[in-house]
Design brief:
With 285 residues, the protein is an alpha/beta fold. The chain has a single domain, classed as Arginase, Chain A, CATH 3.40.800.10. The protein has an 8-stranded parallel beta sheet, sandwiched between helices. Strands 2-3 form a two-stranded antiparallel sheet. α1 crosses α8, α2 runs parallel beside α3 and α3 runs parallel beside α4. The protein is globular. 51% of the residues are buried.
């Protein structure tokens, strides 16, 4: 593992010393509306130097953390299954080496690659999913591998009662009906998150953040903006609880930076990524 020359803010530890590994999966081959998430990881690395390493929210600093940035995976565009295989293999290597994987997407389908590896390592895995969309479709236009089906594929891996969904405000009717029977779905906001954190204490947890959970007035740089989302402060307050969980993997996805020429969406993504990294680095504290 060689250090990436273009790193996210302060993620410059040597691989052998790092507890957490950041890496990008710049794939948007199944995007159903506006493409562009393949540019998300690079934009976040470049713009991350516009924020400070120190967080006044948690009174912690990235320079005190051991985080390695492995750069972006090289991907064969047009072959979703191969992308998932490469993502799974890379994540599995990190887990074998005792690292916590933090992935920057990319569209949300790439989460399936990391979860495949993490679920093999932790058979009792729980997944916390923040999103505007259910992502529980069986298929999208006949394709079972899609960013619209990713959480159904995750459910296939982990089963009932282990998928906890928050902020959901869009999806087909049958997806919501499926969720009533099989997932722990919280519509519209993050109400109930604190209780979920308490219930999952000590259990292995994967955290998947689709940034379109935020209202598009705050985060418009995404492929499928959905009105009625949460505020940055609501998301931040939830993220600041992650250190109470045994986070064994994480992703931040669905930034399409060129849909927000102001750069504000990328700045939001960078800041919330900083907070997530700090929480993971200090889990149990």
């Amino acid at each position: 593992m060689n250090k990436n020359v273009h790193t996210f803010l302060a993620c410059e530890a040597d691989y052998s010393e790092a507890d957490t590994v950041l890496f990008g999966v710049p794939f948007d081959g199944t995007t159903s509306f506006r493409p562009g998430t393949r540019f998300g990881p690079a934009a976040m690395r470049g713009e991350s130097f516009g924020i400070e390493t120190y967080s006044p929210y948690s009174d912690r600093d990235l320079v005190d953390c051991s985080i390695f940035d492995g750069g972006d995976l090289e991907l064969p565009f047009g072959n979703a299954e191969k992308v998932l295989e490469l993502t799974r293999d890379y994540t599995a290597q990190l887990l074998r080496d005792g690292k916590c994987p933090v992935m920057l997407g990319g569209e949300h389908l790439v989460t399936l690659g990391t979860v495949r590896a993490v679920a093999e390592q932790y058979p009792d895995l729980h997944v916390i999913h923040f999103d505007a969309h259910t992502d529980l479709r069986t298929d999208y236009l006949g394709e079972q591998l899609s960013h619209s089906t990713v959480m159904k594929q995750v459910w296939n891996l982990i089963g009932d009662g282990r998928l906890h969904q928050f902020g959901i405000r869009s999806g087909e009717k049958y997806e919501f009906e499926f969720a009533k029977q099989h997932t722990d779905l919280h519509k519209f906001d993050l109400n109930g998150f604190e209780q979920t954190v308490a219930a999952l204490k000590g259990k292995p947890v994967y955290f998947s953040l689709d940034l379109d959970v935020l209202d598009p007035s705050i985060f418009c740089g995404t492929g499928t903006p959905e009105a009625g989302g949460i505020t940055f402060k609501e998301l931040l307050d939830a993220v600041l609880q992650l250190h109470r969980l045994n986070i064994v993997g994480c992703d931040i996805n669905e930034l399409s930076p060129h849909y927000d020429q102001s750069g504000a969406s990328t700045a939001v993504a960078c800041k919330i990524t900083r907070e997530i990294l700090l929480q993971i680095a200090n889990k149990g504290a």
